């Protein structure tokens, strides 16, 4: 039986008369992006170009794949150097550090060295010839190095200290932030009815021309029967963290790309998928990763304490078990 999620707050405002349904799409962050929008009469801007420029700017600041990005230059910078940060970078770092503090270290934007060690960074990839999983001594050495580093974020001064060897990685927050910036770009031009998406992370507002909300299907686990669920993205965003996207087998361990910064190892807690619905896609992105790392019990408790709408799909013998929060169940119709 299909489940249906509907937001508790509905804005009944219809699209302005004369609005035209338009689509835009492109590439960013190693994946694709798309937008469906109702453009009010009189809007003459090329919104597709505006959105692509916004995304290119974010990549130029936060990509760990681009050596000349602000993040890339910071990661290579010498000890004791201060780095001026643009407003978008400040917003993302500030939020990521808050999630790190709230989660007791289950989320860490400075875990780039660990990501690289396990083959999920820009070099020495897990799916390339010659890669081998790190030895326990290498994992412990990486954790010890991270513990010894103390980057200083001067929020008021919009600058960041490189203590020497600190490696930022925004992989679990920048894509969600970029979705939010697509929405911001549209709203700056008077567009209030849209669905925007980057690599499966989505944000919707308003409604379609027929008065229906922007319905999306929640991501399931490939190859396993998953609960069929659709959500009305009306003032909501959605992001899913899953162990099936990038992984390799390391003995009996399914080494997924989601790493626990506390242990230094890929998560191994039966969480196959975590979906979070939230007004901010940046928040949904980072929080779905955090809950996955915390695991079924601590993750759900973390989500409940914060009133988050979250769904976990757990790998059990013979299939999946669905676990949800109170806020998630409140959206069910």
From TrEMBL:
Keywords: FAD, Flavoprotein, Magnesium, Metal-binding, Transferase
Top-level lineage group: Bacteria
EC number: 2.7.1.180
Cofactor info, note text: Magnesium. Can also use manganese.
Presence of keyword Flavoprotein: yes
InterPro entries membership: ApbE (IPR024932), ApbE-like_sf (IPR003374)
Enzyme class per UniProt: transferase
Catalytic activity: L-threonyl-[protein] + FAD = FMN-L-threonyl-[protein] + AMP + H(+)
Cofactor requirements of the protein: Mg(2+); Mn(2+)
Residues reported in the UniProt entry to bind Mg(2+): 172, 285, 289
Pfam families from the UniProt entry: ApbE
One MF annotation (Gene Ontology) recorded for this entry: transferase activity
Family of this protein: Belongs to the ApbE family.
Official protein name in the record: FAD:protein FMN transferase
Species of the source: Massilia litorea
